[in-house]
Amino acid sequence: MSVVAAPGTAANAVRGSLKLVFGLVPVVAGLDKFANLLTAWGRYLAPQLAQTLPVGPRTFMHAVGVIEIAAGVGLLLTPWTRVFAWIVALWLFGISLDLILAGYYDVAVRDIVMATSALCLARLSAPELVRTTPPLAERPQGA
After folding, report:
1. In the 8-state DSSP scheme, what is residue 7?
2. How many Cα atoms are found within 13 Å in the side-chain-facing hemisphere of 124?
3. Which listed residue, 11, 29, 73, 99, has the most CB atoms within 10 A of its CB?
């Protein structure tokens, strides 16, 4: 038998908060890849990476935006929270590598922390096995 954290528990409240954050933030950041209102996203693209792209930085950032929107929507609106939390975490680790190459170490550290938090969401969303037999210490004598 498997269960997820019971409604009303602290674990479920944390899970809900993380799900909301890791659903909305990628959607907002993804949409902004088309508008550049929050920042000029292209400047965070490492020159070493930009030189290897088959498309221009702007087109690449648009593709990044589409992926971020899909990951956020998938996390928020599908029953596969755990899977999408892993996708968001891996995506953030990848972004962190790009940021390190580009010299944005402070932003890379932030993204590594966010990726670690997304992994926590994946763990909180995993089904837990429920013990069907009592532990050995609690079994009656002779059982």
Report:
1. T
2. 21
3. 99
Supply 126's token pair.
Answer: 């995993």
Cα(106)–Cα(94) distance, integer angstroms: 15
Express each pLDDT in 18-67 by its tens digit: 999 999 999 999 999 999 999 999 999 999 999 999 999 999 999 999 99
* Per-residue confidence (pLDDT) for residue 63, from 0 to 100: 96
| Interval 86-95 mean pLDDT | 96
- Environment class of residue 112 by beta-carbon count within 10 Å: exposed (0-12), middle (13-18) or buried (19+)? middle
Residue 140 covered by a domain: no
110-119 contacts at long range (C-beta below 8 A, 24 or more positions apart): 114/22, 115/88, 115/89, 115/90, 116/89, 117/18, 117/22, 118/18, 118/22, 118/85, 118/86, 118/88, 118/89, 118/92, 119/85, 119/86, 119/89
Work out how many domains the chain is built from and give that number.
Answer: 1
Asked whether residue 38 is assigned to any structural domain, the reply reads yes
pTM of this structure = 0.81
- Domain boundaries, position 72: 8-127
| Residue 61: φ, ψ to 5° | -65, -35
49 falls within a domain: yes
